[in-house]
Amino acid sequence: MATVVVGAGLSGLAAALRLAEAGERVTLLTKGIGGLPLSAGTVDVLGYAGDERVTRPYEALVTLAAAAPDHPYALLGRDAVEAAVAWLQAQVPELLAGQPGVNVTLPTAVGALRPTCLYPPSMAAGADLAGKAVAIVGPRQLKDFYPALCAANLARTPGGPAAAVGHSLDLPARPGEADASGLAYARSLDDPECRARFVAAVAAVVGDAEVVGLPAVLGYKDLNAWRAIQEGLGKPVFEITLIPPSVPGLRLNDALTALAKAAGVRIVLGSKVTGYTAEGGKVTSVTLHQAGHNQPWPADHVVYAPGGFESGALRVDSYGHVKETLFDLPVAAMGSGTVATERVLRATATGPDTMAPEGSAATGPDTTPAPAQPLLTGDFWQDQALFKLGVRVDAALRPIDESGRPVFTNLYATGSLLAGAIRWSEKSGEGIALGSAWAAAEVILGR
Fold first, then answer.
1. Which long-range contacts (CB under 8 A, 24 or more apart) does 199-205 make?
2. What domain range includes position 146?
3. Could you tell me if 392 and 330 are in contact, meaning their C-beta atoms sit under 8 angstroms apart?
4. Are 294 and 274 in contact (CB under 8 A)?
5. Which of 270, 367, 372, 416 could bridge to 308 as Cys pair (CB 3.0-4.6 Å)?
6. 390 near 364, Cβ under 8 Å?
7. What is the pLDDT of residue 379?
């Protein structure tokens, strides 16, 4: 049996690795690297339920699923998510610490505390700052990290340290470089000589601080670079995630990609999947536009993990027309009780959605009932219905049509494509990605 996975984010990599280690022939097709380098390198299962911060994510997941039947967790259930997260941690224990069933809060670059479930060991000391004296230190040449801002906000954050002080160092990543990314610093700190200079500069300013917070640049390929820096300082250190490209996210992406290749996954990078063929209700191949021509890739199963709006898998045109861009799958407006393919939804800031004129040249006839709420409202901080749009699936993770039947019996949708969640506000993205990848793999494996 041959499985094709489309997409190289966490969900795609997890599905490919899980299937390959079980003996499946797997090919992963992706235009570029997935979204992990944009992530914090942590695993969020559920950080917030409404406005309440969650401490026990699996228990809160069950409550959320009961209250929100359209949410992906209502379909996946606790067991699949818990099994998937435990499996991932066992795959990369050097990159993911923590207890999967218990959230901790970690400092962000602006000095807020963010709940998460699993995290790199290099961030562990940041999970226990209450009542401590903390120094936040960073190079002045590092873009978008301001130690004084981080420290000032952290000091007044409930549950934060007793005191926090920021220190900026004059310490370029490379000689003469005035403006460097986190990745440039991480690569330089793979070198022991650079680490020694870094440790000396940090040690000169931290004084009596009990814990030292540093930007998440403490080595890229050398996963023990942070330990060497900690030993050199003689104090616990913790990494603070920066804006992308995220070094912890890159570390996790590289590790999972290497594991997938070692398990036998064939990864085809740099070409876009542009179409498919189907027969008898099954996808028989996907079409890869490669080297100037279209190349069919036969498949017995297809795991579709392309992301959502952010990756172009879902698109809204100038008419408010929401579309899934490869298989033309029905897009669901969760909570409205309606599902539509290439649905015309006018997202307004003040009132109900307005349907495009029936039979217009831009859209053609449309008989979809209007949703119960607008896709966008004028209240920026309100949960926006637009961000819950996605593909509805059945219990086997197969996309379904308006009548609830699978569009294709061997196509499985996972990750951010699934409808019903606002992952960034819930802090649920990795839990959904892993749980759906695990569940789809279990179906393909006949379990």
1. 199/229, 199/232, 199/233, 201/169, 201/171, 202/137, 202/169, 202/229, 202/233, 203/232, 203/233, 205/135, 205/137, 205/167, 205/169
2. 109-240
3. yes
4. yes
5. 416
6. no
7. 78
Domain count, the chain: 2
The single residue listed with the structure tokens 């959904």 is 432
Q: How far apart are the first and last CA of the chain?
A: 15
* Same domain? 431 vs 338: yes
Structure tokens at 161: 């340290």
Q: For 43, which DSSP code?
A: B
| 426 CB-near residues (< 8 Å, 6+ apart) | 46, 47, 48, 49
pLDDT, tens digit, 9 for 90 and up, residues 16-64: 999 999 999 999 999 999 999 999 999 999 999 988 999 999 999 999 9
CA dist 102 and 117 (Å) reads: 6
Q: Which amino acid is at 146?
A: Y
> Do 299 and 266 fall within a single domain?
yes
- Cα 444 to Cα 13, 26, 327: the distances in Å are 15, 12, 20
For 409-436, the pLDDT digits (tens) are 999 999 999 999 999 999 999 999 999 9
Residue 340 has pLDDT above 50, yes or no: no
pTM of the model: 0.90
Three-state DSSP at 306 gives: coil
